[in-house]
Amino acid sequence: MLNTILAGKGVMYIAPAFDKSVDEVVIPDKRMICPQFTRLKLGSNCRYNCDWSFLKLTNRTLHPFITVRSEYKKIMKQIRKRVAGHQIPVMFNGGELIDSLSLEHLTGAAKYFIPRFGRMENARLFMLTKAHRVNPIINLKHCEHTILAWSINAPEVSKKFEIGAPSFKNRLIAARRVQEAGYPLRLRLDPIVPIQGWKRAYRETIEEVFDHVSPERITLGTLRFEKGFYNIRNSIFTTGKDLTRLVDKMKPMFPPKIFPGSDRPKVGKYSFSEGERIRIFDYVINEIQKRSVCEISLCKESAQVWNELSLDLHHCKCVCQLTYADMGPNEDGNLI
């Protein structure tokens, strides 16, 4: 399996547009806080070999290669249909299944979509990337309707576990360039990996970030895996035993529970204990708040962790949200 996955990273399949290139993503397990978002499916899988990436196993059996979608006019027609009649802008997440910019020199997708979103008052484009080549988008007429977010990590972590991805320094330079070009900028510091000396590593990373850019939002996450990924961890990692030793300590986030539409019990993801996740987030949040008043959210976390960190579930301002999502309990005390 691993050899097939790695070989597929060198293969690009140019496919027609989906009939449903736009859809809504909803996590049924409400214990794992994740707001609904509108997804724009411009491709799937990734050229980089980040050892923890869920895209490693996405479509691994039938499509173990990078897929990019063509027929941009058809996709644009679906986007316009989705926002027809909307006064409040709809944000389209184009970076959930594929890196939004890593193949831009081959696809020209951003060059096509960014100016068109710039002319639409009721639509916004969200792009998530680790790429460092941003020349194709610098001079586009975006009108601040495209929000760019960089996935970053501590240099020691990135160098060891994000094989093939641009360096932390180069990502930061790219982020600064697009912010100087007027694009709204956000960051994902995810996953935070508690390597030896992790506090120093992430403190220095955060210092470097705010020396170069001023993100309006940051979303944080720790190492976490779906059950299927966790079960084959000993055969799927390529970077040695360090990651395996960390992952071996993980447990399910929640007790098993069956949700509507599924006959299999859900346990959330496999991750560190709740107490350890709180300690990690608390340290990183404090370091960010020493330097910035940017908005902070957590990715796929429990309400208990949010509450322990005094983050407002009623105003989840994840990087994938245009404004915010209300993820707090309703009148019955249940999470929305």
Describe the structure.
- The structure is a single chain.
- The protein starts with a helix and ends in a 28-residue tail after the last helix.
- It has 13 helices and 16 strands.
- By secondary structure, the protein is an alpha/beta fold.
- The radius of gyration is 19 Å and the shape is globular.
- The strands form 4 sheets. It has an 8-stranded mixed sheet. Strands 1-6-4 form a 3-stranded mixed sheet, with no helix packed on it. It has a 3-stranded antiparallel sheet with strand order 13-15-14.
- The chain has one domain: pyruvate-formate lyase- activating enzyme (Alpha-Beta Horseshoe), CATH 3.80.30.30.
- The model has no long low-confidence stretch (mean pLDDT 93).
- Helix 8 (198-212) packs parallel to helix 12.
Give the gist of this structure:
The chain is an alpha/beta fold and 336 residues long. It has helices at 2-8, 72-83, 104-107, 109-118, 135-138, 155-161, 168-180, 198-212, 227-231, 233-236, 241-247, 274-289, 303-308, and strands at residues 12-15, 22-25, 37-40, 43-44, 49-50, 66-69, 90-93, 123-129, 146-152, 162-163, 185-192, 217-222, 224-225, 251-252, 270-271, 295-298.
